[in-house]
Automatic annotation (TrEMBL):
Keyword vocabulary terms for this entry: Membrane, Signal, Transmembrane, Transmembrane helix
Signal peptide location: 1-20
Region spans: Disordered: 331-358
UniProt key word Signal: yes
Originating species: Cudoniella acicularis
Domain of life where this protein originates: Eukaryota
Residue spans crossing the bilayer: 264-288
Name of this chain's protein: Uncharacterized protein
Length: 358
């Protein structure tokens, strides 16, 4: 084999998805429902009688089913695409089985109710992103599910093993195909076209809960995406029915839900009305008083300004009169002859004044 041929063969070997497996996949209804057996190397086999984990190989059974109206893809009877509530991702439980792949494929029954059920932590990725505000033509979404942890009866295990496989499911939306486009709210017409198991590394490495950003009340949702769906890594301890624990939205809805459960809806509404009234009334009163104070100051300043204007007019008139009198006096003194001025009366003689008195 020449070097060129050897290089070409190696390139083909690494490019062909040999790590994409189809074993452990059983179709219950072609294009609509599929059963998957997923080996979990880091999860001990649970002994239901002794309530302990045994160091034996085990697998989880996952069922993906399209609803009869073909609008939604379900995982263990929970809406996984699209999500029914993106703020509170679904809680997934899966039965654990010790059976091998051959036993799984040859098994006639699909009843796993007598097996122990594990609650799951998982990573959920949809490409293209399942944001209903984005319109897609020829919508062919691919769902990737990577299991991150599992728990039962208070015991929890983080599934860190790199040799664990991830599930990839491809669907076709016939409502957004051949010229159609997705709608908001979404109305899909799904069909499952491909189901494969892929190696976790390197595209979907395990991410632990401590590696995620801390959720605080400074954030409304503590989201990982800017739009719907908000979250990629779903750890059970981080979510409840009110959303992501620690966020401001969660605190608000939790308090509302608690009041609603204890008092009833209408009592809560009445209580909120009273609280709002008691809070707003002082503010309205303060605004009213401040408005009146401003109005009084404005009126006072208007009157003062008017008084000052009147005083200036009177003072101007007085100044004008004094100026005219002064002008006349100065004009007489400077411009007219002194002979024309009126002479003062002479003093009365002393003798004449005496005779007159006698």
């Amino acid at each position: 084999m020449t070097p060129a041929v050897r290089f070409f063969a190696l390139a083909v070997a690494f490019s062909v998805p040999l790590h994409a497996l189809s074993r452990g996949i059983k179709w219950l209804d072609e294009g609509r429902s599929v059963l998957i057996r997923l080996d979990i190397p880091g999860l001990p086999l649970w002994n239901q009688e002794e309530h302990i984990g045994e160091d034996k190989p085990s697998a989880l059974i996952l069922n993906f089913t399209v609803t009869p109206d073909r609008h939604t893809l379900l995982l263990q009877d929970q809406a996984i695409l699209p999500l029914s509530d993106p703020n509170a991702p679904p809680r997934i439980n899966a039965p654990q089985t010790p059976e091998t792949i051959a036993e799984f494929e040859n098994r006639k029954s699909t009843d796993y109710d007598n097996l122990p059920f594990f609650a799951l932590d998982y990573e959920r990725i949809v490409h293209p992103r399942d944001d209903p505000s984005i319109q897609y033509y020829n919508y062919v979404p691919s769902l990737t599910l990577n299991l991150l942890g599992a728990g039962i009866e208070g015991y929890n295990t983080l599934l860190k093993q790199s040799d664990q496989l991830v599930i990839k499911i491809t669907l076709k939306d016939y409502n957004a195909y051949n010229g159609g486009k997705t709608t908001n709210p979404p109305i899909h017409l799904f069909e499952v076209t491909h189901v494969r198991l892929w190696e976790r590394w390197p595209n979907n490495p395990w991410i632990g809960p401590d590696e995620l950003s801390e959720c605080t009340s400074w954030s409304w949702r503590c989201e990982e995406f800017g739009d719907t769906p908000w979250y990629r890594y779903i750890y059970r301890k981080d979510f409840d029915r009110y959303g992501k624990i620690g966020s401001l939205r969660h605190a608000f809805l939790q308090r509302w839900g608690t009041l609603n459960e204890r008092l009833g809806f209408w009592r809560v509404v009445l209580l909120l009305s009273v609280a709002v009234t008691m809070t707003v009334s002082p503010i309205v009163y303060c605004v009213y008083k401040a408005g009146n104070a401003i109005k009084r100051v404005y009126n006072f300043r208007t009157r003062v300004s008017k008084w000052e204007l009147d005083d200036e007019e009177v003072e101007g008139l007085l100044v004008g009169d004094d100026f005219e009198v002064k002008y006349e006096k100065d004009h007489v003194r400077e411009g007219e002859d002194s002979s024309t001025l009126e002479k003062p009366l002479p003093p009365v003689p002393t003798g004449q004044a005496t005779s007159t008195s006698s």
